[in-house]
């Protein structure tokens, strides 16, 4: 099971809290939760500028790229309108990498994700 540390800064912003939960589900490849949040024909960019179309293909690419981290720490979750960003650190064994997801919400309600881009160090 992956240990999760939240930013602690999303108490007054449901959109920021949602973005934070989406990022956690993405890095842990929580397909069950993401089935509710990623639209079926979502677009993911996980390596360079290559677009991956479809929820299942996007989850497969993430899983291949990130594996199953031992720990996830969220540093910030920021949203505005139909866009959000979440950054943090993944730890697997003794290896730590930074990541950032830029999320495109389907609507300003921010209850589903139309596209996302992953940056990692």
Strand order of the largest sheet: 1-4-5-6-7-2-3
Shape, per Cα inertia axes? globular
Task: State which percent range the strand residues make up.
Answer: 35-45%
First-residue to last-residue Cα separation:
23 Å
List the helices and strands and how they pair.
Layout lengths: L2 E3 L8 H14 L3 H7 E8 L5 E3 L1 H12 L4 E10 L2 E10 L2 E11 L7 E8 L1
Parallel strand pairs: 1-4, 2-7
Antiparallel strand pairs: 2-3, 4-5, 5-6, 6-7
What would you note in describing this structure?
There is one protein chain. With 121 residues, this protein is of the alpha/beta class. It has a single domain, classed as Roll (Nuclear Transport Factor 2, Chain: A). 27% of the residues lie in helices and 44% in strands. The protein has 3 helices and 7 strands; from the N terminus they run βααββαββββ. The protein has helices spanning 14-27, 31-37, 55-66, and strands at 3-5, 38-45, 51-53, 71-80, 83-92, 95-105, 113-120. Strands 1-4-5-6-7-2-3 form a 7-stranded mixed beta sheet. Strand 4 and strand 5 form a beta hairpin. It is globular. The mean pLDDT is 91.
């Amino acid at each position: 099971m992956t240990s999760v540390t939240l930013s602690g800064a999303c108490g007054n912003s449901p959109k920021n809290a949602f973005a934070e939960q989406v990022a956690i589900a993405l890095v842990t490849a929580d397909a069950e939760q993401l089935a509710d949040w990623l639209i079926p024909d979502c677009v993911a960019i996980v390596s360079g500028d290559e677009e991956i179309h479809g929820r299942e293909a996007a989850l497969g690419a993430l899983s291949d790229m990130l594996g199953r981290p031992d720990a996830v720490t969220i540093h910030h979750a920021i949203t505005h309108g139909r866009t959000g960003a979440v950054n943090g650190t993944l730890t697997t064994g003794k290896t730590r990498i930074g990541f950032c997801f830029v999320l495109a919400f389907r609507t300003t309600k921010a209850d589903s994700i139309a596209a996302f881009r992953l940056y990692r160090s």
